[in-house]
Write a structure and sequence with these properties.
Helix content is 44%, strand content 17%. It is an alpha/beta fold and 272 residues long. The chain has one domain (2-270): P-loop containing nucleotide triphosphate hydrolases (Rossmann fold, 3-Layer(aba) Sandwich). The protein has an eight-stranded mixed sheet with strand order 3-4-2-5-1-6-7-8, sandwiched between helices. The radius of gyration is 17 Å and the shape is globular.
Amino acid sequence: MEIIAVANQKGGVGKTTTAVNLAAALAVIGKKKVLLIDLDPQGNATTGAGLDKNELKKSIVDVLLDETKLHKVIEKNTQAGFDVAGANRDLAGIDMSLSDVEDAPFLLKKAIELAKKSGKFTYDYVIMDCAPSLSILTVNALVAAKNVIIPMQCEYYALEGVADLIDTIRRLKAINEELHVRGVVRTMFDGRSTLAQDVSAELENYFGELLYNTTIPRSVRLAEAPSFGQSIFGYEKSSKGAIAYHALMNEVIKQSDEPKLFEAKVRAQFDW
């Protein structure tokens, strides 16, 4: 089982779109068993998977605050093709609620480990959609995950926020030594823009082989799909966005199939 956090503290860069559509590609096309964990109080990944976030009987907040077993909050076989541990606004005040909890960063990791021991948690991939901040929710994701996929727009401020995220990952390796950047994916990409091309070149220089070859284009279809509670594969499977996320899925699976080569690239890039 591979646990992947989709994270970037900058908002509006396509984190949720990437989390939902990568999960859908792995499940629908890759025929993998996939769980999406929504760790954003906005609950957009939950909605994008076709669930009503306001009607959830149990959500991820129950796991983190009330020690509810993880498998009890999972919605099985959603119309998007994968399972979902959903979220809603109940997550909004969790930083304050956990401020005095000594093991707060480890709550999700412990819940996943407990679920694995129960035999009811047999996924190929767990994808976690993180909030646009380095909050306790994001820290929980990074402590529980083995690696991180970072969606980035090709704009001049792109690297500023990522530098903080990379620093956080480095520091968290003290308690999660397996944690590393799996890859960076360029989102909302317009190859006709000189600015996008210039920033893309900067990203290539900084991330090297950890920059995915796949770019996710600006797409009306990708923007429309969540309003219908569908992934891009359910909404318009022949669109450019669907083709791009299919290609990204192929790169992610290839990393899984060649772990030693992948880990060598990570160490070479960041001296980890």
